[in-house]
Design brief:
single chain; alpha+beta; 14 helices; extended; five-stranded antiparallel sheet; seven-stranded mixed sheet
Length: 500
């Protein structure tokens, strides 16, 4: 698609996604000169029309050496996790949908190669970055000045940033990579264009992920698969000033390393066993595959010494970060419906001895252990998920709405009984104290005053609306009868009839 700026991301339909090769900002981050030229014509008694010129320096700023954490929407594979990620290219999603193209890869010509991103991901396998490894090719991150970035010395090739940088003003995190290894794993300049794209998605219903305001994102992906059965390090680097140092380029000089700006990074571990849900369920009962242990977290040596944590993991719980309403962060237990150990159904237990239902709202289903000070969100999460699944069913949600409307109507009708007003007036007398009668009468009075004039709507289906009597002559009685018998959509039938 075109790379024009998206101004209405909400126009993307539910369940749809739009991809863009790139999203160009109106001006890339750079230094500009704004020149205004004014001429005054038809001036009397002057030999030449006066001319006035004004020049103003304009600086478009943006991320260059440092990337704020809130600019990142998500990463994959997830940081510090273990799983079957060896066949997935790592990627990072930004909240700013122009991020990869916000500045030029060539700082001297910001508009050259405008579709080429200035950043990218490098995938480093464990033996290539592990301290003490004979095959280590990348240094630990260090902080330097921009002068040390551009002119590192010691046979290290720095980026060519031109004159537009302050040599000592900025602090930059850098890594030094073996130059032969870098050129082997880095993309070519032409390939780099295909490793980033923008996307517009419909974010309705994603308020919990803070995605309700904007549906436009940008994404960078790596060009190298992770190593199998090992840790992998993903490094987000800046290619600015390195447009002539990539894969396939010829570098002159006796350089042995190349200095890259490190904008961020994360680690994860790949495993041989495919722990995706479907494969786990298919393999759970096969000999040698671990049985029910597949649906519980691994227990390491440190967990063995903590009896509470060990017991929780053995019965299928996992610790999760919980952001409380008062702003505090805590760790809480959670488990799903599939467990590696049998459990007692809570509803079968005596009230007060593990049975705390029925739950009127999700907070009511939160369990708290005063001995450990940890919440258990298993039932509260299940309550919330169940409610969302229920309300996502249109016919069921309509039935609930109508049931509520009918129930409120019955309350209103009962409140109109002839003795209601007399009973309500009697409890307002000073000489009558609280009693069973007064509570009932007060309730009747409340509902009489509050709801007697409310006209509660009844939701109708499309069929009920289309087949009503308010559109005479549109369909014959025979056609209506056929629609009812065949359970057809009247709108589609009407559409076909009009086309005929």
């Amino acid at each position: 698609m075109s790379n024009s700026i998206i101004t209405e991301p909400g126009t993307v339909g539910a369940g749809n996604i739009q991809f863009f090769d790139s999203i160009q900002p109106p001006l890339k981050a750079d230094d500009y000169n704004l020149v205004a030229d004014q001429r005054v014509t038809n001036v009397v008694d002057t030999g030449e029309d006066p001319k006035y010129v004004a020049t103003k320096k304009l600086i478009i700023d943006g991320p260059r050496f440092v990337l704020k954490p809130n600019a990142i929407h998500s990463i994959f594979p997830p940081a510090n996790q273990k799983g079957n990620y060896s066949n997935y290219l790592p990627n990072i999603v930004f909240n700013d949908f122009t991020m990869p193209w916000s500045r030029g890869i060539n700082p001297e010509e910001a508009t050259a190669n405008e579709n080429t991103p200035w950043m990218g991901l490098l995938t480093i396998h464990e033996e290539e970055y592990k301290e003490g490894s004979a095959k280590r090719v990348i240094s630990d991150p260090v902080t330097v000045t921009t002068e040390q970035l551009v002119n590192p010395g010691d046979k290290i090739l720095g980026p060519d940033l031109g004159p537009n940088f302050d040599a000592n003003a900025d602090k930059v995190t850098v890594v030094d990579i073996d130059i032969t290894f870098f050129q082997a794993i880095a993309p070519t300049l032409a390939e780099l264009e295909y490793l980033s794209h923008a996307r517009a998605v419909n974010t309705d219903g994603k308020v919990v992920l803070n995605m309700d305001a904007d549906g436009c994102f940008s994404l960078c992906m790596g060009n190298r698969l992770p190593g199998l059965d090992q840790k992998n390090s993903i490094v987000l680097v800046s290619f600015e000033g390195h447009e002539n140092h990539l894969n396939g380029d010829t570098i002159t000089g006796d350089y042995t390393k190349i200095r890259m700006v490190r904008l961020g990074g994360w680690e994860f571990t790949t495993t041989t066993f495919n722990k995706e849900f479907l494969n786990m369920m298919e393999a759970i009962c096969l000999p040698g595959n671990g049985g029910t242990s597949l649906i519980q977290m691994e227990i390491d040596k440190s967990t063995e010494e903590e009896s509470v944590a060990k017991e929780a993991l053995e019965i299928g719980y996992v610790p999760l970060q919980n952001q409380m309403r008062i702003g505090e962060n805590a760790t809480s237990w959670y488990r799903g419906p599939l467990l590696p150990a049998p459990t007692k159904r809570e509803s079968n237990l005596p009230v007060g001895e593990g049975n705390y239902g029925p739950y009127i709202y999700s907070d009511h289903a939160m369990h708290y252990d005063p001995e450990t000070g940890i919440f258990n969100h298993a039932y509260s999460a299940a309550w919330q998920v169940g409610r969302l699944l229920t309300l996502s069913d249109a016919s069921f949600a309509r039935g609930i709405f109508n049931w509520r409307a009918n129930y409120m109507r019955s309350i209103i009708n009962n409140s109109k009984q002839k003795n209601t007003l007399a009973a309500a007036a009697s409890i307002q007398a000073a000489d009558i104290g609280p009693s069973k009668l007064s509570m009932q009468s007060a309730t009747r009075t409340f509902f009489t005053d509050a709801f007697q004039k409310v006209d509660w709507d009844i939701l109708k289906t499309r069929k009920e609306i289309m087949l009503g009597d308010h559109l005479p002559g549109i369909m014959t009685q025979e056609e209506k009868k056929t629609i009812e018998e065949n359970d057809e959509d009247p709108l589609l039938v009407l559409h076909k009839k009009i086309k005929q």
